[in-house]
Amino acid sequence: MSWRYPGPRQAWELRLQRVGFVLLLAWRFPAIPRYSAQPIPAGVAQLVDVSWMGNAALANWIYAAFALALLGYLIDRAMLAALTVLAALWIGAGALASSQGSLAHDTQLVGLVLLAQWIAYARGAWASWRRGVPRRAAHELAVDYTQQVVVATYLLAGLMKLVLSRGAWIAMAPNVATDIVKVHGQRAADALDASLIARGDRLAAFALTHTTAIRLMMGGAWLLELSSPVALLGRIPAMLYGGALIGMHRGIEYLMMIRFYENEALLLIYFVNLPYLLVWAARYCDRTRRRRNHHSDSAVATGVPPA
Amino acid sequence: MSDVARRLRRRPGAMLLAMVLAGIASREWYPFSPFPMYATFTPYSWHVLITDGDDRTVSTLQRFGISAIPLRRMLERRVLTAQADTSQPPESAAARGSVALLHFLLAEARPQPGALPPPPRLRLWRVDSRVDGTHVVSTREMLAEIAVP
Q: From CA B145, how far away is CA A186, in angstroms rounded?
């Protein structure tokens, strides 16, 4: 195993990352809300009518096709076809949810990752056919593209704050208080829990009375977004940025009660690289156990206790 | 990255650059987005609340399967659509958009298991929140009321 980067990604690492991505897709696809029509078509729904995605009679067929494509992706068979189905169904469902007047931002990142991975595997298939490049290269490219897409969304979010606030985002930060009250009001209505309104009022008062603290916290998160391309420089920066961005999302969840399941899962799989860490920890434990056993055997053979 | 992958990836960061440019150029074209959420903050915000005829809060998540969070944008888009209808007086656009949103909730209702049926009447409220010193003060105004068929 290597902590260097760009360094070789292990075959098992790539496989485990695919398992992680499959789990994410299987978990979140059913959570995308379904509607029977697309009254205000958004994005791709302007080109293709995706209202059939909300047809209850087709629901089982849609899930079956999605599951079959997940299986193909998981076992690395007919990868391009599998990704075509996954991207079409995910983006179709997201476009339908976004065509009701409000964008389903939580589905966008995974949709973009699926598109990027499709491009990676298409390039891989082309290179394999033309130059005999091994299939493994496409898996590595897919992870590489996934990381770049995720970083691009954070960089864009940081740049938009700079442009739309005309550089005054940190100065404006204490006004997040009104958005805190708004989201807590919405959550209180969803859960029929009036205590959430009181929580929102408390946090809003904190933001308005501790303006320096709130500016420092939000300024730190903004810098993290703007500097996120650093995460592409190696395993260690990727892990550090992945962990920090997950921390940022948890901070937003505490303050705004908005959870970013897809973002956190993608960061965990491709940046913190949980699969790599788990195998690294397992091998470390195994090596330590073997060394201890070796010392014990030596002690028995020589009669000298290990140092 | 292995040699073979390096051969495939001749331009490092190309996908990053392409996605940033696509996001900026798209100006929200699903699934592309410049991700402008919370890019500005103002001392004023508003959201939408649904109640029954006795002004008790109705959980749209439980009764209709739609969270309260997207309701504001859904209302804004319906009011804009109503404004675009030149056959109707523009001053009634807010009311028409509000009624359209309530009917949309009823038409698309996918209630959570065990949820109560919709109440006989539904009211749509606009809740305004503004900074007042060290606190946020909220006021609300009813935008529409309909009888549930």
A: 19
